Amino acid sequence: MAAALENDYKNMIIEELDVMMKKSRNENDRFRALAYDKVLKQLKNMDGPVHTYDDLKDITGIGSGIEKKIKEILLTGKLQVAEDIKEEQAASLSLFDTLLNIHGIGAVKARNLVEKAHITSIEDLMEKSNKNPKLLNAQQKVGLKYYEELLERIPRSEMKKHEKLILKELGDSAIIVGSYRRELADSGDIDVLISESILKADDLKKTVEKMQKSGYITDVLALGSHKCMAVVKLPATGTKKEGKNPEKHRRLDILLTPENEFIPSVIYFTGSQKFNIEMRKVAINLGYSLSEHGIKKKKDDIPDVPVFKKEKDVFDFLGMDYVEPKNR
């Protein structure tokens, strides 16, 4: 019995359930995929090993099907159905995941591309989309065009250049959130928040047009009154004599938030996910809900929620010590 407790099955459970989630997504079984995803996120964020099923008592959303699979892993060290999938559908699942990495392509479209258009690779998709302009929509074509570049992480040194250019256009009140604000070494994309008290919804379109004219925004994927999704590229570096060094295309999202939601949004989109979960637990224990839209009362006999002027106000309201973004 003592020897068995030495085995930590957490990574194996994550690996096998991840295979099952991808299979469900591939079959467009959205609800089952979401169920796996919910459990997987909690497993990845949990501290400590998994020796027995009792170690998962704090994981929510484990239905009977997932429970049975976890117990099989704990008993045998593997999930046979997942192992079979790895052998039989490795190529298909890999291609499906690859297609999902293209901006604008979701589960249904990826499945149709594989099963109906008989796409076998990114190169094959490029060739067939050139022959058939209706195969992909405008967003998907942009995502495919810059596929390799958009997959690459953005070094912090480059993020600083984007920040300088973005703040020049949007003003110093705009905040780049996510891993950049947490001072990590790289970022997946560029997420910018700005309050509607600074930039009105009517002015977003004008600002985007200005950034297009400057050449910074190369492609607009979507533009509404409160959000812009775009592809951007820094100006090429180097002299004309030396030869210009082209910069890479990156994803940019600009989000306008109501003034009363701005500070909670900054906290939420700064992350990390694990920190947000812990903060949400504190709010729930006090009788509030917490999201990117703010703190809301869930009970009548608790204090009203004030308008927060800075992040520390939120921490103080929840009775938490302030945590710098780099430590979240």
Automatic annotation (TrEMBL):
Matching PANTHER family: DNA POLYMERASE LAMBDA (PTHR11276:SF28), DNA POLYMERASE TYPE-X FAMILY MEMBER (PTHR11276)
Organism per entry: viral metagenome
Domain DNA-directed DNA polymerase X: 9-328
Protein name: DNA-directed DNA polymerase
Biological process according to GO: double-strand break repair via nonhomologous end joining
SUPFAM superfamilies: DNA polymerase beta, N-terminal domain-like, Nucleotidyltransferase, PsbU/PolX domain-like
Signal peptide: none
GO molecular function: DNA binding; DNA-directed DNA polymerase activity
Catalytic activity: DNA(n) + a 2'-deoxyribonucleoside 5'-triphosphate = DNA(n+1) + diphosphate
Keyword list, A-Z: DNA damage, DNA repair, DNA replication, DNA synthesis, DNA-directed DNA polymerase, Nucleotidyltransferase, Transferase
